[in-house]
Amino acid sequence: MKDFFTFYKDIQGMQLPFEAFSLIHIVFLAISLFLIMKLYRYYGKLNTIAQRRFQVKMAIYFLIEEALYTAWLLWKCHDHVLLEILPLELCSLCVYMNAFCVFTQKESLRFFSAVVGLIAGGVAMIYPANISGLYPVFSYRTINFYMLHGAFILFSLIQLKDETLLSYEHMKKNFVILSCMFTIAFIVNVMYNTQYMFVGIPPKISFIASVYQMTGIVFFLPVVLIVLSIIQVVVVFLLRQVFYRKNHPYQEYKY
């Protein structure tokens, strides 16, 4: 427990590290899935006013979590801390988008939370590259990582209860939002040699790095944006099948 709050660069002689695809990883996934489904079912039993309060509490949790995470970085990170706390990580952007969509009720933000939040939370929990081998199992970073990304998935499922959310118009707006986010992150990465939004120069994640090797720096960002648009179309199509046709098996979904 001596390294519970320690930043990964300062950990020496780590005991019981968190490793991706290990038994402890499976345990974390199982516990997270159990809690997500329990809270999702609990939310479904609430009336409209109670559901609204539930979402407001989640929004407050997201903002408090981000504030505590930033405070932890300021406390424990001693290397380029100002770059570390820039809100350009995908999880940080999801935090703010989730909170803003609760307080503003804008459909475009709710679409982002539903689709991007589900992908970001799911992929991160299945492939926890940001913590695997870097932090102990019992550490603030590991526990917070799974709490936050589990909350992303829960919040996404809550938004997806609205069947009208998965529209073509919202999907187009969301692609513009994603393009702006990734473009800003890419520019910052080029300028400061950071890894925001996984599009560093070069990227540290192997399969993204292979794309960079094939495209080079000039075409890297356009290819990433094209791939993102394809992924979004596929994900939205699948979500329509699950969340719309399940309730309306004999109706066509209107775009």
From TrEMBL:
Keywords: Membrane, Transmembrane, Transmembrane helix. The chain crosses the membrane at residues 20-37, 58-75, 81-104, 111-131, 143-162, 174-192, 212-239. The keyword Transmembrane helix applies. The keyword Iron does not apply. It comes from the Bacteria. This is YwaF family protein.
